[in-house]
Design goal:
By secondary structure, the protein is an all-alpha fold. It folds into two domains: about 1-95; about 115-208. About 90% of the residues lie in helices and about 0% in strands. It has seven helices and no strands. It has helices at about 1-45, 45-50, 55-60, 65-95, 95-135, 140-170, 175-205. Helix 4 runs antiparallel to helix 5. It is elongated and about 90 Å long. The chain starts with a helix and ends with a helix.
């Protein structure tokens, strides 16, 4: 009986040691990746480039530089992954299979899904902003801009919603409930856009 208890205590201490070691490694790695990413993105001039897009300006309004924002995101993803890995290996060594399997599921499904969804959203928003900017540049007349602005902004919001839903779905999460919530919002935006266009047409007609 005493030998069994000693063996169990040894396993617990070893498991905790493994978890602590992985957490320390993850912390050091996350800090290193953050510093490397911030310096690399600053040298590439990402800050100035992303300011052209709404996504970059939104990051700027949070008080972070773009490179700092991506560095913090990357470091925290690494921290979380290594904390969960620590829990996984510690629980596996101790013999807590349910906890080990759950922690591995968190990494394979939710963490990987979050990273995939985040990359899709970032790239999608940048492409949408570039597309909307091209629409604005296609017209220089003030009368055209009055009619074009509500349509362009409607398209921007609509495409943002599509990208977010697509990203969440690709991340492995069911979007059926979200789609049901978003549908009336899209209809509301459509009606608002049509009313704004009708108002602008009336204003332009009166101006003549």
């Amino acid at each position: 009986m005493i030998e069994v208890n000693i063996e169990l205590i040894t396993r617990i201490l070893t498991g905790v040691g493994i978890a602590a070691l992985l957490i320390i490694v993850g912390y050091v790695l996350g800090k290193g990746v953050k510093i490397l990413l911030v310096k690399s993105l600053d040298k590439l001039g990402l800050e100035e480039w992303l300011r052209r897009f709404s996504f970059g300006r939104a990051i700027k309004r949070t008080g972070f530089m773009v490179s700092e924002f991506f560095g913090i995101m990357a470091s925290w993803i690494i921290y979380i992954v290594f904390i969960i890995l620590g829990v996984h290996y510690a629980s596996s060594y101790i013999g807590l299979r349910d906890i080990a399997d759950t922690s591995l599921l968190l990494i394979n499904l939710y963490i990987a899904g979050f990273v995939k969804a985040l990359l899709i959203i970032i790239m999608g928003f940048i492409l949408i902003d570039a597309f909307i900017s091209y629409i604005y540049k296609s017209s220089e007349l003030r009368t055209e801009m009055q009619l074009l602005t509500p349509v362009a902004e409607y398209l921007r919001i609509l495409l943002y919603i599509v990208i977010v839903i697509f990203a969440i779905e690709q991340g492995g999460i069911s979007v059926e409930a979200l789609t049901n919530i978003v549908t009336p919002i899209i209809w509301g935006l459509t009606i608002a856009m049509l009313l704004i266009i009708a108002f602008n047409i009336i204003q332009l007609t009166r101006g003549r």
